[in-house]
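Illustration 12: Golgi mannosyltransferase complex subunit.
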Amino acid sequence: MSYFRQTRSSKTTWGIGALLFCCFVYLFFFTTSTDLPFDQLLRQRKSAAAAANPLSPPTSAFRKSSSNGDQKPLGPPPIVHYQLNNLTASAEPHHRGEKVLILTPLARFYEGYWENLVALTYPHEHISIGFIIPKTKEGNAATTALQEAIKKTQAGPLDTRFQSITILRQDFEPALQSQAESERHKMENQAARRASMAKARNSLLFTLLGPDTSWILWVDGDIVETPNSLIQDLASFDRPVIVPNCFQRYVDDNGKDQIRPYDYNSWRDSDTAQELASRMGSDEVLLEGYAEMATYRTLMAMLAETHEDRDKRRLMPLDGVGGTALLVKAEVHRDGAMFPPFAFYHLIETEGFAKMARRLGYESWGLPNYF
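Figure caption equivalent — predicted structure in token form:
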């Protein structure tokens, strides 16, 4: 027979243990990180998001070593396991801390474009940004202006700083030397221009898509005005590919401010377009928005309601999408949907991307009343 007798010393030990347990419970349940000052809390979140090694994915900001003399040099890069099956792309990405990668092919720098990005309300510590810029005179000027804007933002208040920013320079010649709007939209320039754009988009995508990226927002470099909640608004529909309507502000002949449709690449297909495509050669591309090639597709740009009380959550299925402000779940790109720089079912670039996504089982959607 065995038995245990509790001595005075063991009672003391149990008492101390109980006291420590109570302290732990109190600290765990009744004190939270929200008691910290906002700047300190933001630093903690940014530190948690930062990479520990310079060979980490480019979408993770690298936390540099301290300048103290006793700082040990970094060891060999660690082996890191990424559980992509646990990665989410949900309707509430801001609550889940989902990473968003904003990608922009940039030919000219517009101050309004950068100010619009900085004004986005999605937590900036979860946003990485990537640019690809042609090696032209205009591209060099755009790079210089962009770098100045980046310096100001990344040295400013913590809540405006982005997780990481990467600038790539194109290693191929642009299809057009001039970025004038009249040249960019000539029909005879479209196939070559959009093939070059597709190559730029793919270079940007394949270089910067990180293992923790949940969403990719494609934004054109001349988009200067969006709702500040753009990312949350588009993601709230929980669609694999979704695009809002792009409009242009202008002043009419009477001096009044007006708006008009700008992006005609978001559409529903038509029998006429299918018939035109069936008579084309394998390398020919069907273009939208030109009288010489009337497709009679249903254009999302023409379905918009402009009155103030319009239903901004009105949703429609699409067969082609534009890239002015295109939100894509990262899994769509990871599964192989890219921007074909060649004729893919007689479509190219963003419209070809929508077709490729459909072939992979992903539908594209549009918001005709969300500008």
